[in-house]
Amino acid sequence: MTANMQNLESYWMPFTANRAFKKNPRLFASASGMYYQTTEGKKVLDGCAGLWCVNAGHGNKKINDAIKFQVDQMTYSPAFQGGHLGAFEFAERLTDLFPGDLNHAFFTNSGSESADTSLKLARAYFKARGNPEKIKLIGRDKGYHGVNFGGLSVGGIPAARKVFGPFLPEVDHLPHTHNVEGNLFSKGQPEHGVELADRLLEIIELHGADTIAAVIVEPMAGSAGVVVPPKGYLERLRKITKDNDILLIFDEVITAFGRIGDVSTATLLNIQPDMINTAKGLTNGAVPMGAVLVSDEIQRTIVDGPPDVIELFHGYTYSGHPLACAAGIATLDVYKEENLFERAAALSPYFEKAVHSLKRHNIVRDIRNFGMVAAIDLIPREGAPSVRAFDAYLKAFEQGLLIRTTGDIIALSPPLIIEEKQIDTIINTLDDILTTL
Ligand SMILES: Cc1ncc(COP(=O)(O)O)c(C=O)c1O
To answer: What is the residue with the minimal CA distance to atom 1 of ligand 1?
Structure first.
């Protein structure tokens, strides 16, 4: 790519204020470890692991070498009625890692595709089981399951849905668990909100359990601004879904692969969902990929009938792509060899203490954290929602720090290789910036 490229118009950037960006672009040229380098040579500390995905840090040599090796072997193999060993190996490695009987991996290319795949599998399961009327899908307010129609239908972020309706029928939503006043400055899982899981009982009463296929939730809602599950809430959802023969899908696109100090929230809290959706940390962001981890019961029920007939008409041209599988296998090796999940768990208390030190600023409304994720919730400027946090984003970038903002919330989720002194740098930079906002 030419270094002095001037025309930025052709690329329509996703989830971006295109016109403002193109007037004042922030362009990255390279990345290594905890840092990006911009095209202007500025070093930028990554406070959000790219987009919650680069858990093992940038440019990991083992992952890069695995991709380079695979490039010379084979860059594509047909995904339908054909295969390559890497996909089988990666699926086995993954299913060994995730809890209980989630012994089958369905590969996608993103978190959005994982969401729609899991919702379709839920319906296909009940059709195959002889309950074709179990079709309703229950999401949650403030939920984010990507941008495809299935995920948007069960999702609950108004701005992401506003201009795209109508959505799937046969959908309902649980209330969210974000209770700022009740759980102010909570550390880890908040105390209040377990009873919100009981709202599922009302939804079941309204529609009938015999019409509901699945409940899908992010164990920790990331895109809505880091909404940590109240103590006992997810366990209760599991009990109610199980008692009523409803599948429970955990969307762990953000929370899996060490982000919360374990393989997944399901592992951490010892809860067994029927499916877990993943993407992001799956390949350390090096090659796009997602995976839905599926229980034996669901897979075996669908994969039935005459053995030479295609059992499920679903999949993607790039499901189990050779480069993605090579990156994914190497990523799992790196997580293990560098003990990154344990490292995240060990670093979390330091991170928590550091982040909560920002409470002293009077524009800070709330701070919350879970594993290596934290949110600093700012009081919006009068009549100008989101502007204060975005100002923080721009100032942080100027000062060589990348953060993520959503509404008036600053979200931090650094690579898990971060060191204590780099946590200090993030907090000191934000401390300075918060005094100017
Ligand atoms: C929980 C969750 N699900 C799904 C997605 C969508 O992932 P993608 O952008 O890879 O489609 C995201 C993205 O942030 C997410 O946080």
So the answer is: 253
